[in-house]
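The instructor's notes for this session suggest beginning with a concrete chain rather than abstract definitions. Hand out the sequence below and ask the class to guess, before any prediction is shown, which regions might be ordered.
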Amino acid sequence: MAANTRFATGVHALVLLAAEPDGLQTSEDVASKLSINPVVIRRVFSLLHQAGLLESQKGPHGGSKLARSTKSITLADIYAALNGGELFHTATLSGAQTAKVGSVLKKVFEGAESALREELEKTTLNELVKKAGKKGKK
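After discussion, reveal the predicted structure:
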């Protein structure tokens, strides 16, 4: 199973936008800084825009910037924008025993996902930018 890196990519991209809050950055600019394909950034930016986390302007002098302050954007907001839906999925299997296990497993998965979202809610983009900046300056 391939890992989904959309969340991590989105966080990195938003940190870059936060570093220049007044300017617009193109998907090509951000992709170059992250050494990834601009198409990946455009897909991520589209989802972040739909979630109200980014503002975008089209045209030759266009680009994207944060739609809200870094203090009001949590990692949970970013996660929800980029990874909508359930984190864990139970298998669709037949049989009496599998139904019982599936029911118990679903409750475990719900608890784990709730804990993850709760933890992501504790960190704002602003805190992440500050922590990353301190580590980078040492």
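Then share the key points. The CA atoms of residues 26 and 59 lie 10 Å apart. Residues 6-84+124-137 form a domain with the Arc Repressor Mutant, subunit A fold (CATH 1.10.10.10).
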